[in-house]
Amino acid sequence: MSATGFSSTCFNRSCSWKVEKLSKSKKQHEGKPFVKCSMRSSDRTSQSTVRIGVLGASGYTGAEVLRLLANHPQFEVTLMTAVRKAGEPIASVFPHLATQNLPDLIAIEDANFSDVDAVFCCLPHGTTQEIIKGLPMHLKIVDLSADFRLRDISEYEEWYGKPHKAPDLQKEAVYGLTEISREEIKNARLVANPGCYPTSIQLPLVPLIKANLIEAKNIIIDAKSGVSGAGRSPKENLLYTEVAEGINSYGVTRHRHVPETEQGLSDAARSRVTISFTPHLIPMSRGMQSTIYVEMAPGASIEDLHQRLGQFYKDEEFVILLENGVIPRTHSVRGSNYCLINVFPDRIPGRAIIISVIDNLVKGASGQALQNLNAMMGFPENTGLQYQPLFP
Ligand SMILES: NC(=O)C1=CN([C@@H]2O[C@H](COP(=O)(O)OP(=O)(O)OC[C@H]3O[C@@H](n4cnc5c(N)ncnc54)[C@H](OP(=O)(O)O)[C@@H]3O)[C@@H](O)[C@H]2O)C=CC1
Ligand SMILES: CC(=O)N[C@@H](CCC(=O)OP(=O)(O)O)C(=O)O
């Protein structure tokens, strides 16, 4: 019994121990995650618990992994790293996570990876490949950066402008677009989690290209992202004054998600696909929309495209084809792992407009990463991911 005369079961993950309630009012917090486990995390580790490291836990995708894991009964965060924020408790970096029982942030050099079973790498591009190289072989790794997404190392070096530091690891990395590569992901040790734009584009296009319902040429993508897509590190172009009340195109003709997207579409087409892609930064914190203009194959109709996507994703929990005419909105996926898609007739005969929306931090990053680790560890893919969208 706690001082308030009330005890409750720890809400965080698989802990079945009694915990002390922090609030005076039982009614106010009953059944909600406003309880703090009084045990040390090492006491809670049991055989069924998977010990998780979050590298880069003080960034946006790291924070999102932590938020999602609060609802995961088997994954227990035992290691969290940072650079500028190393040494700080998570509550001082992210007060919204203050009620979770999490270890303090430490420098990666001080991490003991033998006490961890799996890691989410939420680190900047280029740093990940060096760090992963030094990790023990028993670890399952989901890398959220772009370091292992491009199979062709020379293409990586061309688009990222530097030599790849772990080309051997690239060979074993599996590209983690879950709904498309599930079987390989299940057996992978290292998964390269897709970029947010490539996720929102490939999910609708891959099934259509595979079924020869659209031409794998003349594909035009106009995409928009919320500002969290650029990470939490301060940058001049991300200042409120630069982003608010405006729209900023960037990476015009040369965004690094072009080769990643073309790689996936080319695999689907079994021939080289090139795309026109222009991303935009828009004044919202999270969310992403890709509006995609395609040429239908001779004889194909909007109904054929709609039917194919509905059929392809009928057993998928997270990819949803909307009813005819319903417009996907970023508000309808905010905070969730869903991708909503729909197909519309273009005024130009023979062409179609496809709209796809995701939350860049969830299906576009941490949610898909958790979906992948679930698959790799043999858990139901939706574990910890059953958040309804936050609307409006
Ligand atoms: N944001 C998004 O929507 C998406 C991001 N991604 C990718 O995920 C990765 C993480 O992105 P995001 O969370 O947005 O980035 P942030 O900039 O928000 O966070 C980066 C994290 O990495 C740490 N870090 C910075 N430099 C180093 C270093 N040299 N060595 C070790 N750790 C370091 C930071 O620590 P500290 O804060 O202490 O400096 C922080 O914890 C990136 O590769 C990004 O491209 C992928 C899909 C979508
Ligand atoms: C708004 C914004 O800046 N977005 C990022 C994309 C974030 C993402 O998906 O992915 P990766 O960085 O992991 O490739 C960009 O355009 O570079």
Structural description of this entry:
There is one protein chain. The protein has two domains: 7-194 and 365-377, NAD(P)-binding Rossmann-like Domain (Rossmann fold), CATH 3.40.50; 197-360, Dihydrodipicolinate Reductase, domain 2 (2-Layer Sandwich), CATH 3.30.360. The model is unreliable at 1-47 (pLDDT under 50). The longest helix is centred in the last third of the chain and has 16 residues, at 362-377. It has 13 helices and 17 strands. It is of the alpha/beta class and 392 residues long. The two termini are 40 Å apart. A seven-stranded parallel sheet has the order 6-5-4-7-8-10-9. A seven-stranded mixed sheet has the order 12-13-11-14-17-16-15. It has a three-stranded antiparallel sheet with strand order 1-2-3, with no helix packed on it. Helix 8 (178-186) runs parallel beside helix 13. The chain has helices at 26-29, 41-44, 60-69, 90-93, 127-133, 153-160, 167-172, 178-186, 196-210, 240-243, 257-269, 302-312, 362-377, and strands at residues 7-9, 18-21, 35-36, 50-55, 75-81, 105-106, 118-121, 140-143, 174-175, 190-192, 219-225, 248-249, 275-281, 288-295, 319-321, 339-345, 351-358. The structure holds NADPH dihydro-nicotinamide-adenine-dinucleotide phosphate and N-acetyl-L-glutamyl 5-phosphate (X2W). N-acetyl-L-glutamyl 5-phosphate binds at residues 145-146, 195-197, 225, 229-230, 279, 281, 364.
